[in-house]
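Below is one such record:
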Amino acid sequence: GALSILTERRFFAGELDFLGRAAACCPGTPLLRKDFIFDPLQVRATAATPAAALLLIVALTPDTALLRRLREQAESLGMQAVVEVCGKKDLVLARESGARIIQVNARDLDTLRVDRQACLELARQCPPERGEIWIAASGMDRREHLEEAARAGFSAALVGTALMQEGQPGAALRRLLRGREDGHHAA
């Protein structure tokens, strides 16, 4: 597992310092910087934190060359790049940029509507290729959702709201994973 840490300040009240605080609370747990990253300076700033990975969103940087540059920069600095897509067009750009860790967001960034079925359908129509790791994101709040994602070819799931809404993320995660013994996990 890993922790996705929101660092975007304007819309999500995040702070870059949250990464350091998370590392202190959860030593040894890989951390993903979740932010709107579109500039090499942001990648360099991330490398100065305990983050093991950062998020690149195709909808924010729909330029294959820039995506590739940011991904390669992150990797050269010892981090992984998780490249988020929302549909087939985004997936094509992500693959052209050389992305290997692909997060499929079921939430439409324009309308904020969650469509888990569209997320699963993308995986069925354009299955993960050799060497790709796919993460299902948004709307994953029941064990059945994790099982559906696993059957569609996802290796992991990003779970946020379902863990945080009751203020007891550990207990919520145990409930979500109860009875899971086949190796798929929430990230």
User: Anything to note?
Assistant: The longest helix spans residues 64-76. Confidence is low (pLDDT under 50) at residues 179-187. The chain has eight helices and eight strands.
